[in-house]
Model the fold of this input.
Amino acid sequence: MPNCLLLQEYNTKFAHETPIEAEMKIKSLLRYSYRVIEILFILSITAGIVSMGLSSHDSAEMIGMLMTNIGAMAWLWFISLPLLLIVFVSFLRCSIPPLSIYKKVVLLLHLLNVVLWFVFYVILPKPEPCDAAIMEKHYKNHHDDMYDLVRYVRSSLDDSCSIVLQYRDNEVQTFTIANNSERKTCTGIKDQQELEKILQTVGLSIQELAMIQEKMHKAGIIGIDIEKNSISRWMTAKSELQFRWFGNNIYQFALYDYLLKEKERDEFLRSHQFILYNDSVVFEAYGDYCDLRGFPDKDKFQPLNEVNK
Done:
């Protein structure tokens, strides 16, 4: 009985509508739905730009995030191309007169996204540049300090233990220690007693950690990845000393404990990520796959390496 009443009410309400009126209603509904989706899509772009801007340490990192996103979009072209087409058509359609209130709102949102991007790019700090020549100069000026840092860390660690300590903008970004049985993350630990208890598992004390930080500062280093091997110090492949951030790229010194073999040297010579400085020192650059700048002056600098061998 209730179903019959509902059917009767529906027939009474829509019986007077002609097919043309019904079609117009459907078109109106579709147009309204498209407008809602269009605005939500543009606002999602706005949210993405704000998120990149707020999470970036500097303007180069923001550009790096953009390059990474572009790389991801290239892989997912079958999804990204239709979305880019929607944005382009939306901007073009709302730029052509006559401009209704809705068109003006959408156009303002597009312009807001452009303005937001440039505002974040301008207000974010500009990173210090880095290339092979800059790293060579730093290595020559701080050679003794860097090797003193490595020796002190290894002498402080227990056998088969390691420490990774990395700073960015004077804040600890990564802090982990490891021994034969486990790896522990110390980032964010404020309690001194808790931290000292964890440090003791690799043979370190709070005082030794403070000395490591002091020696890092003296050597002009922002991060270390150093291990002490139980058999012999020569068995440890290398010590990594991070030098400088540029966007999502980290530039570092790799100090090897042995003279590199010819095959290893050839691999370093071929890749734009590495500069073979001499037979036991390599300048390295690591970063996002789509934003790895490497060394812009590698071709100019590499022939000079012969004098360092």
User: Anything to note?
Assistant: Residues 19-55 form the longest helix (37 residues).
